[in-house]
Amino acid sequence: MALMASSVPAQSFNVDMDRFDNVITAPNSYTAGGLQNGLWNSFTDIPSLDILSVSGQATAISLSIVNFQGNGLFSPGVPAPDSEMYSDFALLNPNKTYTFTGLIPGEYTVHVHSYHPPTNGVWRTQIRVDGSNEGVQELGASFWPGAPQAGLTYSTHTISFQSTGTLLIRGRAANPVGGVGGAVNGIQVVRTGDVCAGVRYCFPPELNSLGLASFISCSGSDSIAANNLTLTGNLLVPNQPAFFVIGSGNAVVSLPFGRLCVSGGLARMPVGITSPSPNSIFSFTVDYNNMPAGAPTISPGTTTYWQLFQRDPQGVGGGSLTDAMAVTHIP
Questions:
Q1: Of 113, 172, 174, 293, whose Cβ has the fewest other Cβ atoms within 10 Å?
Q2: pLDDT tens figures, 113-125
Q3: Helix or strand or coil: residue 98?
Q4: Do 131 and 206 contact (CB within 8 A), yes or no?
Q5: Domain 7-193, CATH number (from 2.60.120.380, 3.40.50.300, 1.10.490.10, 2.30.42.10)
Q6: What predicted TM-score, i.e. pTM, was given to this entire model?
Q7: Distance between CA atoms of 280 and 239, rounded to whole angstroms?
Q8: Are the C-beta atoms of residues 249 and 228 closer than 8 Å to each other?
């Protein structure tokens, strides 16, 4: 079995919303809090933009925004390089859709950045990604938190495409003033792998001690012969022990630290440590030839149920759980 974190940069990309007469684009070394570095596409007032990947490669992806309006903004209290991405934004008046076409099949994680410092958190932004499980997320911070932070300055969404897909990101002002009030500073799209047939359930996830809803994503295949299914816990507490639990059922049991959403023939996968980044993750690649004692038998047509537990010293009961995922296996 292998513990790992991976991404597929060929269709991963960054977009910085810029004002046409005062373009301030984030440098390629900028990661927006450890999420993803590489080239930043600059979107100004043009009708559409052909997207380059983080490595500078041409893609078939294009971005269009109806009635785009950029607006330059100095960011008091936000140091470089964060200020170079958060210094300008696209207004939401009162709502707007960002349309990305031409994404190849796969699993994607989408980060949408929104911080509007002069208003001290009065202007707040609601973000929704069509087809994701995370629903509407509201962003806004009364002061710069020191670095990009999930739930305050950016939202995170997961989505998958079985065929060439269109990504729709919708934003609106949560409390519009004079018809406006929300803003988007930038968008990062990370292709995490090929389509995984896992189905998430037991959501929305309960919040951990950081106020984040930890969730499971997957990559690889549900094929037993391929033997490359990788499960990833996202938005975890950094630098803490974590492990996946497998079961043969999906009954829900309330525990002191959250809802256990797997049951029957439970077994624990190897323990590892969550990554140190603010957007902490923990990944595990299943090896069907080396399953732990007590794990349910996996054969074509059977369904297994997965959930991640992590140590959460500041959380209720000292731990926290993600949502869960069901995987129906094929030969």
A1: 293
A2: 998 755 555 678 8
A3: strand
A4: no
A5: 2.60.120.380
A6: 0.69
A7: 8
A8: no
